[in-house]
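Trying the structure run again after the queue cleared.
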Amino acid sequence: MIQLATTQLIEDLKIEIISDDKIKVNGIELEPSSSPGTLPTWTWNKELVLSELDKNIDILEILAGAYQAGRLEEELRSRSEKWKGRITFFLPSLTRSGPDGNSFFLLASPGGNQRILVNICSIKKLFGMKSIKDYRFTTDGQEVNISIVPADYNNIALFAKGPGKDFAPKALGPTKRLGVGNRMTTLIWPYLFKAAREKNIRANLIQNSVYRELAPAGMIFSKHPADITTLPGLGKLGVGHTGTSIEGLWLYGVVSAIEAGFKEDYGADADHIPVKQGKEGLNKAKELVDCARYFTFYTLDTSARFYPEADTLPIEEIRSRFNRIIEKDELLNRYSGKFEIKSVVRNECPELLFNREEIMRIALKFHDSIEAVVELDKYIREIKQGEEYDLEVSLDECPELTTEKEMFFILNELKRRGVIVTQAAPNVGFEKRVDYRLPDGLDGLRHRVSRLAAIAEHFGAILDFHSGSDKSAETYRTISDATGGNIQLKVSGKLQLIYGETIQDMMKDFFLWWWNWTLDYAVEEKKAGSKVAEKYVRAIEERKRKEGDSFKPSAGDTFFTNFSYAAVGVRDDNGRFLYRNRFYDIPKNVKEEYGRRIEEYISTLARDLGLLN
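Done. Tokens:
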């Protein structure tokens, strides 16, 4: 049997059935079919599932007979279209297991929007998964077993490690790829899988910021979640503002891959796991890693442990503080010589020579963050139980540009402590929602990125670029050229902005409501003292005055592009989502147009970055 550290997530959540399409979770009302990614299960009403299956027992009998006759696949292909509305079978998910390939798994939806795994075999073997019912049929004197397995966090994890491993996210190592933040979950995945397959694009197709966009399921279903997070440059808001749970994002993403029959390489990134100061900060980070135990990529954001003041403190104070660091003499000796950087793709590589003051300042600036990465990497290694994973160190939220010597020092210290870093995300001057605009221009960016990439390569890693949306094709080509094409770039918010543009074009009443709600939200943020909100509100008021009667709300208004995300996960005093279902219950033609735009955006981005294989 596959060994897997399991969680009691489903049992810990108190689920009460209100109706076929409504439940209460820990007392919070939810319509799960139109609020995907919240629950750590896609089988929330087991009684309804079994009722639908019992009503359609003839379909199961036909499948049992076809299995016994050795023509299960043919029967599914010929009949599945007729069965839709009774039981929908997702044929691309059909998987054989067992030594003789005589056990079949298949994803299905027995009415409504729930999902289950169906196992058809002669001898039941579920690899540790738990079924809710086992149907037994006798055909020509032979018994056929059909097990119904809920599509929950633990069962899908076991399936992904066993018979369904071809559908599972994987650690891809220091290989070029996109990171695609998925704030709109099931609306986006079918089109991401399609683009990735047709264009041969490698990507982390499951990705969001842990404890910003995502929260643990227990917190999502708490009436009064206490924690607040901060979005850089925008201000404070509740943790998990998308309404998606950490566990739910992984589950719905992997099930979507199974549904699509997606067997190409992709990763699952628990992005920007925050590591705050002190022991409490480390313990909290470990809790978040626990929630993300089945992810394959971990981005550690230790920026709260940086000490940027070390850049400017008087040298006397630097010496005093540095003298309290353990093994300070060994550290000074370790960086006393010249370091030659080796690269196979760059002709000119930096040679680094540290002076004593630089060593002390850099060590003070990053000492606590390095210690935290070492401890968390050890913890991840323990819970992954020998499974490979990708590890990224995030430096992009340091207030200053990352220097070559800082990059070298951090990666060198981690390597000597046994930490394998596959991606490093320096601050190269990228900002959210604007193109590169530092005074040194693209030539300066190319030079900086090339030398940082050489250092990363020296340690077996590649560069990752955060805040990657809204850059010009020239900027993307610049960083691709500078890295020799071995690059990773993350986008997230852009995909939701494309959603806003689609809604503006095709659902004008819904868009107008969303736009007005967001403006009210921005005004309240302004009243609360947000300078950013004040600037955005002033800009829209000026546009209204200037355009007069010709004024029309736009998805491109800066207050909207920066604050519109908040409406999706906003909740009332009882913890119930107020509007989330509205964002998912959209007409099929709108979903398809949104998907077409997503495919076009991802394909163009990959082309500009040189990621098309």
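The two ends are 38 Å apart (CA to CA). Worth checking whether this holds up in the mutant runs.
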